[in-house]
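Researcher: We're teaching a course module on how sequence relates to structure. For the next exercise, students receive a sequence and then see the predicted structure as tokens, so they can try to spot secondary structure elements on their own. Here is the exercise chain.
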Amino acid sequence: EDRGGNIWVGTEGGLACIRKDGNVRAFAGAQGLPSNFINHVTEDSSGTLWIATSAGLCRWEGNEQSLAAAPAQGNASRPWFKVFRSEGAPTDNIIDALAIAADQSIWLGTDNGLGKFHHEKFQALPEAERLPGKNVSALLVTHDQILWVGTATGLFRLQENKLSAFTKANGFPD
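Model: And here is the predicted structure for the students to work with:
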């Protein structure tokens, strides 16, 4: 739910917004998404909506007024999204999970590991190279800025640039 009370839902067919009044607005490739496979939607503390897709990271460029005026299937002539793609960065563009840090940087869970996006740039992360599993499927930033990372090989905590594992080897369930 965004701060305007709208519910945003990502599907394999695109992005849907269920407005407070019950009307639905749908967005897909024709409206500027790089892929119809939407894996995660989150809002940062400034109210910006971020969308993880199988072909890059997107930022919603609309607002409450433009959303209210949009036709049910969006409007292809309006730029609804700004797309960011990783070019040569350590992460790939299949983004499965997002988490927003206090400094407004975005942690990215990808099929190729953990990444970070800040000031409209993808950043290399030395600590991410230590993740035993590359497929990051879940992320959470806690109120005290600890990053929790879920992968196929276990759960990891990144705190003050130190990576701790919670795996079967130390008692974590399979």
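Model: If you want an answer key for the exercise: The mean pLDDT is 86. The longest helix spans residues 64-69.
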